[in-house]
Amino acid sequence: MALAAFAGFDPVQFLNTVVSLSTAFVLGTAIGAERQYRQRTAGLRTNALVAVGAAAFVDIGMRLNGNPAAVQVLAYVVSGVGFLGAGVIMKEGLNIRGLNTAATLWGSAAAGGTAGADLIAESVLIAGFVLAANTSLRPLVNLINRQPLDEGTTEATYELRVGVSTSEVAQVRSALTEALDARNYAVREIVTEDTADDLVDLIATLAGSSAEPGELDAVIAAMEAQGGVRHAAWSMRTAD
């Protein structure tokens, strides 16, 4: 079987695979770099791995056009590995772990599927790209992560928290809504959280994914000037 695999090596088809996977790797890296800069969960390496895996599976399918049974099995492999990858993704509080591992499993499945189709050189090439995404891209990930975070352009969830006495909740809620409306910020929701016998926190979540820090500071200053307000602050998180 191995002899048949090497005998079936096609330099022209292999070159086509090199071009396809290289293009997917470069474009996936470019897309992932933007996601990494904005501190999203699926960052640079995850996008590169998924792009390479997808290109590999499509390339295998095109190469196995004359073997319907193999193509059918390959489709089941793609679906099954998707469920397997979902099993390694875990959410811990606001953080999500395992996306890169799931994408790596997908790339490993592509390498294995290619090897099973007797495309040995292509299998080695895919494994090389998967390893490159997980190793050579790490310095670029670290470089992007060290860049100052621009709150004005980063996609994030913004919350304003105002501590207020229970007797002033309605008045402060109205003032908070008006202050945000005046600066054209839509509010997704405002909830209350009990913190003491006579004190609650009003938590306003903005509907947009970007905001101007200076404007939010002005809203907080306006809230601190309201009667009955004990404290006020705003925060952002990018893990969603």
Question: Helix amount, in percent?
Answer: 55-70%
Low-pLDDT runs of 5+ residues are none
Rg over C-alpha atoms, rounded to the nearest angstrom = 25 Å
Number of strands: 6
**First-last Cα distance:** 48 Å
Overall tally of domains? 2
Q: How does this model look, in words?
A:
By secondary structure, the chain is an alpha+beta fold. It has two domains: 2-145, no CATH class; 157-237, ACT domain (Alpha-Beta Plaits), CATH 3.30.70. It contains nine helices and six strands; from the N terminus they run H-H-H-H-E-E-H-H-H-E-H-E-E-H-E. Strands 4-5-3-6 form a four-stranded antiparallel beta sheet, with helices on one face. It has a two-stranded antiparallel sheet with strand order 1-2. Strand 1 (90-92) and strand 2 (95-97) form a beta hairpin. The protein is elongated and about 85 Å long.
How is this structure best summarized?
With 240 residues, the chain is of the alpha+beta class. It is built from 9 helices and 6 strands; from the N terminus they run ααααββαααβαββαβ.
List the helices and strands and how they pair.
Blueprint: H1 2-7, H2 11-37, H3 44-63, H4 68-87, E1 90-92, E2 95-97, H5 99-116, H6 120-135, H7 138-145, E3 157-165, H8 169-182, E4 187-196, E5 199-206, H9 213-224, E6 229-237
Helix pairs in contact: 2-3, 2-6, 3-5, 3-6, 4-5, 5-6, 8-9
Provide tags for this entry.
four-stranded antiparallel sheet; 240 residues; two-stranded antiparallel sheet; alpha+beta; 9 helices
